[in-house]
Write a structure and sequence with these properties.
Length: 172
């Protein structure tokens, strides 16, 4: 399987050519394109044409987005984004909680705020339009879905259970 993660269809759509679509059909492999977009306004007409070229060319499409304070941190914008993915034949896949990267704290919400937004989405979107809310646990412990079985509230923040069942403190 080949996965190509890209913002090209929404940021530089003219690069999605018939030759690119043909190249994504690698012999002996299945190719997936993960389209990265964080706001419904990224689906300009040109982007929709590029995405349609991929979908019409038989390339399965999934999405990745990052939950960003001041960009998409309300239920209406997130719902519009997820519906825009579905309307463009892209399966909403991951909604990432922001990483603890230096210089990005102004984009970060708390996990509690993110969980509340996801609960609101679940109440207002079809299952097809629901992404999985994910956290890449700092320290190289892997990505985990932020679901009730993997998240515990603590006095200092949260504890997150990794894929091996080990708990990690998360105070971001």
């Amino acid at each position: 399987m080949i996965r190509w993660h890209t913002r090209v269809p929404v940021t530089d759509p003219e690069r999605v050519t018939d030759d690119l679509v043909a190249a994504l059909h690698a012999p002996g492999a299945t190719s997936y394109v993960a389209v990265h977009a964080n706001h419904p306004s990224e689906f300009a007409t040109e982007a929709k044409v590029a995405i349609a070229r991929l979908a019409d060319g038989g390339i399965p499409l999934v999405s990745q987005s990052v939950l960003l304070k001041g960009v998409n941190d309300n239920a209406q914008t997130l719902a519009e984004l997820m519906r825009a993915f579905v309307e463009n034949r892209i399966k909403p896949y991951y909604l990432h909680h922001p990483d603890l990267a230096p210089g990005t704290s102004h984009f970060r919400l708390s996990i509690g705020e993110g969980l509340a937004l996801v609960r609101s989405l679940r109440a207002n979107l079809s299952g097809l339009a629901m992404p999985t809310y994910m956290l890449d646990i700092p320290g190289g412990f892997g990505k985990v879905p932020l679901e009730s079985v993997n998240v515990e509230k603590t006095a200092a923040g949260h504890r997150i259970r990794d894929g091996h069942g080990v708990w990690h403190d998360y105070n971001g």
